[in-house]
Amino acid sequence: MDDQRNCEYSRVPQVQDVLKICKALNDQDVKYVLIGGFAVILHGFVRGTKDIDLLVDVSEENIQKVKRALSVLPDNAISLIRDNEVSQYQVVRIADEVIVDLMAKACGIDYEHAKEGIQWMEIENVKIPVADKKWLIKMKDTIRPHDKTDVDFLRRMIQKENQNIKEKISIIRPWYLKWFKSLKGL
What we know:
By secondary structure, this protein is of the alpha+beta class. It is 47% helix and 19% strand.
């Protein structure tokens, strides 16, 4: 949703904002996954983003926890949201000091499915459940140009990782075979 017009009173979020929000969500045991621009940034792509995208479990209990956690934002804009709005509208934009998009689904993927692809990252002692590269690619299956750029980056990163694995195997394999043959002689 970061291609839509920003609220004039919200500023561009920084990594410190993500950490503050994720810490508050963790403190409330919220079921969520960081997706969108910040997730891509945490995977290594240098780019800007206008909001913080969170895919959340839409159960009433979890949404109440989200509301308690996001009350750490100075304007407490989350208090204006009813418990059923995320499930009803699929995306709810919280325009506080920074913009937070709460999503029931991203490209048809809900929290229950996305949690399979959580990659935990720790920054400044805050553990963040981030969608892994493969799941982010699925969640960015849109026509938006910046999503296509993100997907290209994520695919290149996966290719590079796979190439690194193949190189490591090619180095280890001869050693392993030699070691294995030496065991046969015992």
